[in-house]
Amino acid sequence: MTQILSPAAPLAGSAAVFPAEEFRARAAALQSRIRAEGADALLLTGPENIFWAAGRQTAGYFAFQALLVPAEGAPVLLVRQLEETGARADVWFDDIRTWQDGEDPATALAALVRAQGVQRLAVERTGWFVSPDMMTRIETTLAGICLLDGSGWTETLRAVKSPRELAALRLAAGYAEAGMAAAIDACRDGVSENAVAAAMTAAAINAGSEAMAMEPLVSSGPRSGIPHATWRRRLLAEGDGVFLELAASHDRYHAALMRSVWMGTPPQTAQRMMDTSLRALDAALAAMLPGRPCCAPHEAAQQVIDAAGFTAAFRKRAGYSMGAAFAPDWGEGAILSLFTGVDTALEPGMVFHLPITLRDYGRFTVGVSETVIVTATGAEPLSSLPRQITLR
Asked: Which one, of 317, 334, 177, lies nearest residue 245 by Cα?
């Protein structure tokens, strides 16, 4: 059975990352969409969407949680009972329900939805957090209630960041730059990947970063030619390429950064790839103008890469949206990609990470990236760290 717990006045909203008016404005925008779609309420289960609408964040989101946003009135949050104290500190409203260990949260959710008189409920069918088994249980316990597909309703609103969100992203970018500078400095002959990762992470955290939604990427030598490989005790040696990437966090908002290091003199092919990556990033940034489609930066970068003869070394999107993130992903790639066929128009306030990497698979990777804000006049990179490959 769900419980309605009395508000704890000293806790209420004390840990909120933004003022209540920020969240009220978000809820109002979401409710306009709910009403326009003919739903009585929207059920949010993804941690990023719950955080965006309610301010709720916890390391315990592995336990089922849900936010019911009605077409009118304040939301209702359902969490595991252990999470109730933190939820009260985070959110801007009072109605928080709980389910107990040993209780089926789907049953608790159904009781809540029915008590609210909801007849037409929109759910996030494309959400990554709810397992097929859990969704089946939810559908079973909600028998008789019309379930609509509310996928993407919240993400559409998350794409353009508010001034407060942009301020958080700027801070996160500063933390990432501190971490990257420390990692580059730590790359010395005989130093382990672990030591580089430790220097990177410590510097970012000391600069202000909170928990990161994904571990930093530190790889060297042949392992640097494996996408998404990270530290594994290997010692750096003459002739190694070193791949470095991280995203730091401020109030769950993440900014990412990538740089390359070479121990000694890079082979001619590696240097040509690096030079191409730099030109491709410049081309992509120049194409990031309001009103242009999201495919434009990708196509600009791809043209540079193709002309240099490195088509097979790329074969991926040029970038993805950034913002609020929870593990396992530091990006908002499910919201917007800079890629062929994505015709959504760029708007001021959108934020993207552009990782331009070229790989000789299994041998090395070189690349460079920036997290940028789309402004009225173009793209504003959030880092001032030199982009060229660092030679050690």
From this structure: 177
Alpha-carbon gap, residue 352 to 11, rounded angstroms: 35
Contact 331, 325 (CB under 8 A): yes
Per-residue pLDDT tens for 51-99?
999 999 999 999 999 999 999 999 999 999 999 999 999 999 999 999 9
What are the pLDDT digits (tens) for 14-39?
Answer: 899 999 999 999 999 999 999 999 99
Edge-to-edge strand list for the sheet holding 146-149: 3-4, 96-99, 76-80, 66-70, 41-44, 120-123, 146-149
- CB 79, CB 44: distance < 8 Å: no
Name the pTM for this structure: 0.95
- CA atoms of 345 and 278, how far apart (whole Å): 25
Distance CA(148)–CA(150), nearest Å, equals 6
Give the number of other Cβ atoms within 10 Å of residue 72's Cβ: 9
Class of domain 163-391 as given by CATH? alpha beta
Q: Domain segments of the chain: what residues?
A: 3-158, 163-391
DSSP H stretches of helix in the chain: 20-36, 47-54, 84-90, 105-115, 132-141, 153-158, 163-186, 193-207, 268-286, 295-307
Contact between residue 255 and residue 213 where contact means Cβ atoms under 8 Å apart: no
User: Within 13 Å and on the Cβ side, how many CA atoms surround 78?
Assistant: 25
Q: How many residues does the chain have?
A: 392
Give the chain's largest Cα–Cα span: 69
Q: Which residue has the tokens 């791809």?
A: 302
Contact assessment for residue 59 and residue 331, using Cβ atoms and an 8 Å cutoff: no
Distances (CA, A) of 317 to 3, 119, 249, 270, 289: 46, 41, 23, 21, 18
Name which CATH class applies to 3-158: alpha beta
CA distances 12 to 24, 25, 45, 87, 91, Å, are 15, 19, 22, 9, 7
